[in-house]
Amino acid sequence: MGAYQVADGLGVLSQVQAAGTKVRELIFVDDAGRRVASIRTRQSEREVELSRGDLSAILVEAGREDAEYLFDEMIKELHPDATGVDVIFDGTAPRRFDLVVGADGIHSGVRRLAFGPEPDFVKHLGLYVAGVKADVPLERDDTVLMHNEPGTAVALHPGTGSPLAAFMFRSRVRVDHRDPQAVRRLLEQTYSRHAWRTEELLSAYLATDDVYFDSVSRIRMPSWSRGRITLLGDAASCVSLFGDGSSSAMEGAATLAESLTSSPNDIAAALARYESAHRAATRPRQRGVRIASHLLIPRSRLEMTLRDQALRLAGRRRRVQAS
């Protein structure tokens, strides 16, 4: 079941569509902002792009009558046994649960507590992504503009009212995503050539603390479950440069729910079924990361030229077929 069907089943599809962007095309531009190639970002009307924040707000509201939320809270300890898990929180009184699902992202605290330290499972792929809301002028709200230099990309996304600037680049330098000064130095060094609107967008990023920065990484784990603790979404299988991590998490959550519903008295069997089915769904996406990286962040000017030529040829073929 895809994320579109999951949203429909939850009764939130209309809200998801209303919060979606109008983007239909990614346009690659040269130093002067002229189009050199383009690619469709949406293949059908059953695809919706929206911010993770908007999606989270919709899902939280949809589950408010069926779930208890503890905001501004962290799990400090997990003590599993054969029938459940005792959870020690940072500020709330300890609780016991039949099952703990770690859906807390690539830097998952649940994974660290239950399975071991992050470096045992997370492989940095030599790529970084940074983003910020940018109050800059845009001509269109249905296209993403992207400029490449070898090993780097700068993009301007119209969002849904607040444009977003994104920086994607290759680097062998390892920095802690929680160290803003190290991040700032790396970005300034990487984007020292101010082609296209790079200087303007980088200045917007460096002028605020409300930013996103992280490595592009792959999670590899022999098992997603340990007793009554399991992992979901990026915590188990971070996959993509194309932003479909949220889609994958929704699909995984639906698969997990179906597995638990079918055998509520055999949690081990349910978790095994969930993992088998969802691994099969995420495996192709994990393999696609390197393909996506060559499309969005070519290593050399030759790769940029070959990509642009291939995309222009593909565009001409689509127009001929359509006619």
Helices and strands, with pairings:
Blueprint lengths: L2 H8 L2 H7 L5 E5 L5 E6 L11 H11 L12 E6 L4 E5 L5 E3 L2 E3 L6 H7 L6 E12 L9 E7 L2 E6 L6 E7 L9 H11 L7 H9 L4 E9 L5 E2 L2 E3 L2 H4 L7 H18 L4 H30 L4 H22 L1
Parallel strand pairs: 1-8, 6-13
Antiparallel strand pairs: 1-2, 3-4, 4-5, 7-10, 7-11, 8-9, 9-10, 12-13
Helix pairs in contact: 1-8, 8-9
Question: What would your notes on this structure say?
Answer:
By secondary structure, this protein is of the alpha+beta class. It has ten helices and 13 strands. The longest helix is centred in the C-terminal third of the chain and has 30 residues, at 267-296. The chain is globular. The model has no long low-confidence stretch (mean pLDDT 93).
Q: Which key phrases capture this entry?
A:
single chain, 323 residues, alpha+beta, 13 strands
Alpha carbon gyration radius: 21 Å
Poorly predicted sequence stretches spanning 5 or more consecutive residues: none
The count of β-strands is 13
Structural class: alpha+beta
Rough outline: globular
The helix fraction, in percent, is 25-40%
Indicate the proportion of strand residues.
Answer: 15-25%
Largest pleated sheet: 7 strands, mixed
Question: Order of SSEs, N→C?
Answer: HHEEHEEEEHEEEEHHEEEHHHH
How many DSSP H or I helices?
A: 10
Lateral arrangement of strands in the main beta sheet: 2-1-8-9-10-7-11
Mean pLDDT figure = 93
Distance between the termini: 34 Å
